[in-house]
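[job 4471] stage=fold_predict status=RUNNING
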Amino acid sequence: MAIKTYGSMQVDWEQRIDFDRLRRERVARTKQLLQASEMGSLLCFDMNNVRYLTATHIGTWAQDKMNRFTLLPQNDEPILWDFGSAARHHQLYAPWLGEKRSRPGISLLRGAMSPEMGRAEDVAHKIWVELKERGLDKEPVGVDIAEVPILFELQKKGLKIVDGQQLMSDARLIKTQDEIALITHAAAQVDAAYDELYRAMKPGMRENEAVGLVSKVLYDLGSEYVEAVNAISGERCNPHPHVFSDRMLRPGDPVYYDILQSYMGYRTCYYRTFVIGYASKAMTDAYKRCRDYLDAAIDLIRPGRTTGEVASVWPKATEFGFPNEEAAFALQYGHGVGLAIWEKPVISRLVSLDHPIELKPGMVFALETYWPSSDGWSAARIEEEIVVTETGHEIITRFPANDLMVAGHHYYTATGPLPTTRVHDPEPNEDVKKMVAAVRG
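[job 4471] inference complete, writing structure tokens
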């Protein structure tokens, strides 16, 4: 059965994404794992985990502040402490939180509030009071991430702090049907962005202009957050720098992009490679090898297989110019995609061969491969996002990538179209050869 995509609006005449079900199923999965754990409660500062548990969002400007936090006690519902007036807003517009469960709370703002201001003590006290009331203050508290002063203050309260990050990562591992629909919609937005980008690329266009074009298309289509558009061209392709510049595209250039953006919080990680005007034989060969490695991995995706089996079909780091797997990390790579661009499962020769994870229906991940050209400066990078289904898999990234695509104007010479693959420079005619030979003596 094909993965469904929908319009961006809710309607009364068609069953679409069910956001109430999305909220219920995310919390229910976390509660189930919490119940089976040693923890009496779960305290989350990671904004993606806060969103997963509370279905609230105040903008991506807050992504790195570690200010918002939520507590999930055993056999209870989440309590949310939020940034100033956002708490009042959620009281009015997020009824699923329940009465008095959206509250103001201000932490250290990543150190902007200095220790003498007492914010760490205040946060710790808020948590301790809720646990004490429920008789959970002697039970381990799972914390995903935290500022060090807050961690110390929680411990001063006598709370036993344990790792809660793994529990949340496990909760987010298997996606619900509504999560899969949202991830698929986000991928469809990137399909459209690549179409516009393909039409626009030409010599003289700069990498940063490509980033601007893609960002506009995505925001016009309803993107919540364009997290990054990596635009890498020409000699910048090898080695891969993972960040765009103001370099101009030139005829014959390779250029690859990674588009990271979110729809309703759900991310994409989506590479495509092009050449401008024409491709060299070295680049064409590199692209084919890059695609072959990707297809070999995709062919293995089905329930019951493991991440180790997938990683085993990729080349060793030493085969493409790196001393070890850590130095080549993320070039031949797989990673879960959800509310963050890197979730479980991670697929890499660095860790997966020794620590394989079984693939299960509902997992959604991206597989990405890289291959440097024999010319020493160009390279190919391709990525597909994949849903593990009951019987196999489905690829949800649809912009063409089976073969290397040539962007830019199609040029013509007096004898016809300019070839899109340049194997070598054309041979001079016989008279020219004779003249050259005479000069060389």
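[job 4471] summary: The chain is about 30% helix and 20% strand.
[job 4471] exit 0
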